[in-house]
Amino acid sequence: MNLSIVTTADGSKTIYNEQVGELYHSRNGALQESEHVFLNAGLRHFLAGKETSEVSILEVGLGTGLNFLITADYCTAKEISLTYTGIEAYPLTEEMIGQTGYEEYVSAPVWENFLMQYPASLSHQVEINQYTQLKTDNRELKDFDNDQLFDVIYFDAFASANQPEMWTEEAINHTAKFLKPGGVFVTYAITGNLKRTLKALGLKVEKAPGAPGKREMLRAVKQF
């Protein structure tokens, strides 16, 4: 893959994938998008009003690890045990991730342990700290299987214009089956087909304000 580092509008960096023709995050702000869509509209929405000391997250498209890093940092600060699985068919190198500068946005131990443990996470679950476990599943979404169900799904695949196979009814059906009843599915995109597919699976779909540069995003809750 021909990859290059790009600075986005909020000063945070992302990576441009020339082969796919897309950035890994919004050009309007990589950090802002991750915090708004995934951490706030996803995890914090799920946790609101709950008395829980543990949470499990599945991310489709681990990419640079930014969503994981801010989630791990948040859970560590709140003393919430986090089990995190990221699906990534084309993992970045440790060196490439190290060029993103994300150490500015999370605690030093979370950043350093992530970089150190990331290569090992491609083969087995690793411990980032006493609260955080990470497994990077190195295969395509269609081949992913897991006995575990998850509280929250971060769906962060490349946009459908450049990676349409990730947004088909089959792909969404396959992803949503790993969500627990009461669990939250969240993504930066919102389309009629995506809404119809999730509703047909019994999820309650809602529009939410989008990150900078996008008017709306989608959040869906699996009914009990």
Task: For the structure shown, list the relevant keywords.
224 residues, alpha/beta, 6 helices
Tell me what you see in this structure.
This protein has one domain (29-222): Rossmann fold (3-Layer(aba) Sandwich), CATH 3.40.50.150. The protein has an eight-stranded mixed β-sheet, sandwiched between helices. Strands 1-2-3 form a three-stranded antiparallel β-sheet, with no helix packed on it. The protein has helices spanning 30-47, 66-78, 94-98, 108-121, 169-176, 192-200, and strands at residues 3-7, 13-17, 22-23, 54-60, 81-87, 126-129, 132-137, 150-155, 179-187, 203-209, 216-222. Helix 1 (30-47) packs across helix 2 and helix 5 (169-176) crosses helix 6. The chain is globular and about 40 Å long. The chain starts with a strand and ends with a strand. A hairpin with a 6-residue loop joins strand 10 (203-209) and strand 11 (216-222). The chain has 224 residues and is of the alpha/beta class. The protein contains six helices and eleven strands.
Please write the string of helix (H) and strand (E) elements.
EEEHEHEHHEEEHEHEE
* Approximate strand percentage: 25-35%
Secondary-structure content class: alpha/beta
Give the strand order of the largest sheet, numbering strands 1, 2, ... along the chain.
Answer: 6-7-5-4-8-9-11-10
**Overall morphology:** globular
Can you count the beta strands?
A: 11
Mean pLDDT: 97
Report the top-level CATH class: Alpha Beta
Task: Briefly note the CATH topology name.
Answer: Rossmann fold
Specify the helix fraction band. Answer: 25-40%
Query: So, CATH architecture?
Result: 3-Layer(aba) Sandwich
Radius of gyration: 16 Å
Number of helices: 6
CATH superfamily: Vaccinia Virus protein VP39
The overall number of domains is: 1
Distance between the termini: 42 Å
